[in-house]
Amino acid sequence: MTGSIRRLATVALTLVAAVFIVSPPSAYGFAEDICYSPDGAPPHNCAPLPPSCPLDDPNGPICGLEAFARYGYTLRQPLGGRSLVHADSTYIIARTVGFSERDAYWIAAYDEATDLGTFAPRDINGRLVPDADAWTTKDIGGLVRTHFATGGFLFHFLPTMRGPRDPEPGGLRPDIGDPRHEVMLTHVRRWAMAGPGSSTPLCTAGFTNQSADGDYATGTECYGDDRPVQINGVYSLETPVAIPFTNVTGQQVISGEVRSSQFDSWIGSESSNARIGIYLHALGDRISHHVCTDAGTITPPSPDRPEFRIDLNKPTCDQGPHAVRHEYETGVDFAGLAPEDQTTEAALSMVYDELVDFARIRGTLNARATAPETKKALLHDGLLPALEVRQPVERLHAVTEVGCRFGVPAFPGNSAC
């Protein structure tokens, strides 16, 4: 009987997932956990882990089907929502390590906008904050998670390049200094570090011409700038059923006809903060999706096949466990998860460390931020327990209170300290 139930659930999940090929849900790395209610009521959990689903088995087909369908419904709500990981937590960490309140906001806003295309702050009942236009990001829809044609998908699912004898990478804490394997991640980081006005390119899928060291992430220009080549990929629905996607190498699409060489002029005065926010989002999603992208592969062009291939048609990328793992990221007891699924702790830890580096480069680093006890107090004694709270309003207030304890004014739209 159990085997029959599993087979029926797998078939159902495949059919549901196939429907979403036409209009895919936004069930991606550290997806929105706070969803606004259109009638002005308090927000609800976008997709809480179903009570019947265990913390130690993300592969159960029934839980996977329910989790995937729930994301497909809740994240289509008219006012959408936001992620307390990508937005609020990033804001609190950035301010704590030394960024100004304004800079911390814009870093967090563009972190969230990388999922949504644009971001504007709302209060707890979903109403735009006063003077919302002044706090709304520019459109960066070319980076959105469901945009396969622009390469936006690859800011959220960052596959690795490795040879047949290379071990799978450790994506729970990816190596940000390894451009040979962590192609997209190191590429976006380098672009963010370079800052406005730099000639450092931002390329589709992170593919540049080969560098002097032989990697495809840190070259001086996008691969095939004069003669682009195809990027052909597959992404699992329910193995072996997959979504095929095709891009071409070259400058990354930012919005409509805007390409990455125009990024700074398009964004304006917040360009430096926007670059940091976009990179932090890619870093968080690399960790969030690591069980998928660790198994994925990139094959570079060869003399007889002038194209890049990306293979994300792996069982660990299937939509059931993918959705369940996102429901592990807020509103649950993180200690009850398998080590590989404790992605919220891993992501916030690396975001903290990276923001320390960015603040140091900018010359605004708070010296106390480098002390291990400061990081522990903010993350392990603060944000992580707050993000475990199951009820959404209480979770939002708990995260805000952590910031207040560290002298960080409430994120725009949240109740004041």
How is this structure best described in words?
The chain has 417 residues and is of the alpha+beta class. It has twelve helices and nine strands. The protein has helices at 2-19, 61-74, 84-97, 101-116, 183-194, 263-267, 271-288, 290-293, 319-327, 343-362, 372-387, 392-405; strands spanning 34-35, 44-45, 81-82, 230-238, 241-248, 253-255, 258-259, 297-299, 307-312. The strands form three sheets. It has a four-stranded mixed sheet. It has a three-stranded antiparallel sheet with strand order 2-1-3. Strands 6-7 form a two-stranded antiparallel ribbon. Helix 3 runs antiparallel to helix 4, helix 10 (343-362) crosses helix 11 (372-387) and helix 11 runs antiparallel to helix 12. It is globular, with a radius of gyration of 20 Å.
Write the topology of this structure.
Blueprint: H1 2-19, E1 34-35, E2 44-45, H2 61-74, E3 81-82, H3 84-97, H4 101-116, H5 183-194, E4 230-238, E5 241-248, E6 253-255, E7 258-259, H6 263-267, H7 271-288, H8 290-293, E8 297-299, E9 307-312, H9 319-327, H10 343-362, H11 372-387, H12 392-405
Parallel strand pairs: 4-9
Antiparallel strand pairs: 1-2, 1-3, 4-5, 6-7, 8-9
Helix pairs in contact: 1-2, 2-9, 3-4, 3-10, 3-12, 4-7, 5-7, 7-10, 10-11, 11-12
Measured between the Cα atoms of the first and last residue, the distance is 54 Å
**Helix coverage percent:** 25-40%
Per DSSP, the total helix count is: 12
Report the uncertain regions: 1-27
Biggest sheet character: 4 strands, mixed
Output the helix-strand order.
Answer: HEEHEHHHEEEEHHHEEHHHH
Give me the side-by-side strand order of the main sheet: 5-4-9-8
- What portion of residues belong to β-strands? 5-15%
Silhouette: globular
Q: What does the average pLDDT come to?
A: 90
Backbone CA Rg: 20 Å
Number of strands: 9
Structural class: alpha+beta
